Amino acid sequence: MRMLLGALGLAATFLHGSAHPSQVQTLYTAPPDQRIQAFAQDGARLAWFEPGTSRCNAVWVWQLGSAQFRMPTQQTRNVTCRWQVPASSPVGLAIASNDGSTAVLWTLREAAAQALKFDYVLGATVSDPQERRFQQVAHARHGSGLWLGGVAGGDGALLYSVVQVQYVDQVACLTTPDKPGACDLKVSGGGIYRIVGRKLPTAVKGASPAVLLALADRRVAYVPAAGAALTDGHPYASPGLPVEIRNVDSGDPVASVSTNGTPIAISLSDTVLAVLARTANGLVLSWYSAGDGKLMNFVTVPKTTSPIVAAGTKDIVYRVGMSLRAVDVATHKVRPVARAASTPVGLSLWGERLAWAENVGGRGRIRAITLRP
User: Fold this and answer.
1) Which residues of 11-46 are buried (b: 16+ CB within 10 A; e: fewer)?
2) pLDDT at 125 over 70
3) Of 212, 271, 314, 352, which sees the most CB atoms within 10 A?
4) Which residues contact 15 (CB under 8 A, 6 or more apart)?
5) What's the CA gap between 301 and 330, in Å, rounded?
């Protein structure tokens, strides 16, 4: 069986909010020698990506308290099944109720060094588990082309971002490639795209190409890509550009947040935008009103803090090594909440439930803790 004995009972406990604070529970344990490479949650829905060894890669969906569901279906050819997914290769993953069914969006990145590197934006739903290729994203080895940004899901929406990179002066790069600056790259386009069912993606109006995304309450927060790109083509965040919040459906602006530093992670809840930024004095975790963008408070965090945050309405969680810590939004006091057994995968917060995946002895499991009564 793919579920620990008693996991259905634990799932029901978390589903109804009756788990005791400070007690970490194991919701799911993978079969032996099966890792979990990505994890996401949206309400009572969990999703995770299991890379295959002797069998196909798989995306699993679990509505807490019910059976687990595997996708994509193997009755038709798909990209996911045999895609090479090294342990170091990031897999983007998001889950949401979408067009009447539980839907999952995932991204696969080509790890091998190729003249043209192909990445994929893929998805499926519980009602139609066939893989849908939403976009094939490709860039050349020298950096020009399309780059995947972030993915986000929740509250009935699924989003991903793409950044287009090209030469500032392609003729100069071809004719005088050794001249300083001749082959500089710039961001020339892209955007944030919304998935509805199996339809073609549609752009979120007014949203610029982004390197980081977060989603809550039908609003998307994003970190715009800087105007330039790194020498290998990678888009990056700029300290001079504000974090923007827009309505997913209309594209109308909600708030614009100027941060003190370069954002390296963001998270959005119904009421709070959390931004982890690198400043001249170290790493700072700041939080703002999700409604108007006003600064609420901030704390300085250790320089070893990982670039991931999970925002709720009362707490913001971040990670230092294996230590998971929460800062109280109202009092800005920091407290330890749990210690992971290995590097957490997909740390996320829904309501008072903090959940993540981890791999111990080559075997994946999903863990969760209730932060408050």
Assistant:
1) bebbbeeebeeeebbebbbbeeebbbbbbbbbbbbb
2) yes
3) 212
4) 44, 64, 65
5) 17
21 has pLDDT over 90: no
Q: Is the pLDDT of residue 134 over 90?
A: yes
What would the pLDDT profile of 51-110 be if each residue is shown by its tens digit? 987 789 999 999 998 889 999 998 888 999 999 888 778 899 999 998 889 999 999 998
**Sheet bearing 334-339, strands edge to edge:** 305-311, 315-320, 323-328, 334-339
d(CA 203, CA 206): 9
**Is the pLDDT confidence value at 366 over 80?**
yes
- What separation in angstroms does the CA of 76 have from each of 51, 115, 131, 155, 272? 19, 29, 8, 30, 42
* 271-292 pLDDT tens trace: 999 999 999 999 999 999 999 9
Whether the bond between 129 and the residue before it is cis, its omega within 30 degrees of 0, is no
* Three-state secondary-structure class, residue 344: coil
Map residue 186 onto helix, strand or coil. Answer: strand
For the record, the structure tokens of 296 come out as 């609420």
Closest CA to 147 of 170, 116, 174: 116
